[in-house]
Design goal:
Blueprint lengths: L3 H31 L1 H7 L1 H21 L4 H21 L9 H29 L9
């Protein structure tokens, strides 16, 4: 039997991820302000990935805020399917003459893989299946 407890738990996990990512982004920003060259060399890719991931979680949080559990499940499932299709159908490289665009594209693919895995776990909690219980 489904209850709102699962949905509230999922919302709290998303809020927790957002908070952790915002903290990481703030730290990256401080590093960038202290020494831009070092930041760019050591952390720019991580900052880009963090920003992309943060945007995805904020979008999800906003989307499911006023949904019931079934609607939230459908939304998360649709997002998982969208990313699955993108990851399967998109080329692994952008093949642009702009190296930074190629790096950004690769980072996006990696983040989508990571997000997809986490969303599958969230969906498992909502569906209340044993095989998808979140890691503690």
């Amino acid at each position: 039997m489904k209850t709102t407890n699962e949905l509230e738990w999922v919302k709290s996990r998303i809020a927790s991820r957002i908070s952790k990512l915002e903290t990481a982004a703030t730290e990256y920003k401080k590093q960038m302000e202290l020494d831009f060259e070092r930041f760019f060399h050591d952390y720019a890719g991580q900052m880009y990935s963090t920003s992309y991931e943060l945007q995805a979680y904020r979008t999800l949080s906003s989307a499911i805020q006023n949904m019931d559990q079934t609607e939230a499940e459908e939304h998360i499932r649709a997002t998982i399917m969208m990313w699955t299709n993108e990851l399967l159908e998109m080329p692994l490289e952008k093949n642009s003459t702009n190296r930074m665009a190629n790096i950004g594209f690769s980072l996006q693919l990696k983040v989508k893989q990571k997000l997809r895995e986490y969303y599958i776990r969230l969906l498992g909690v909502l569906e209340d299946t044993e095989s998808h219980q979140p890691k503690k």
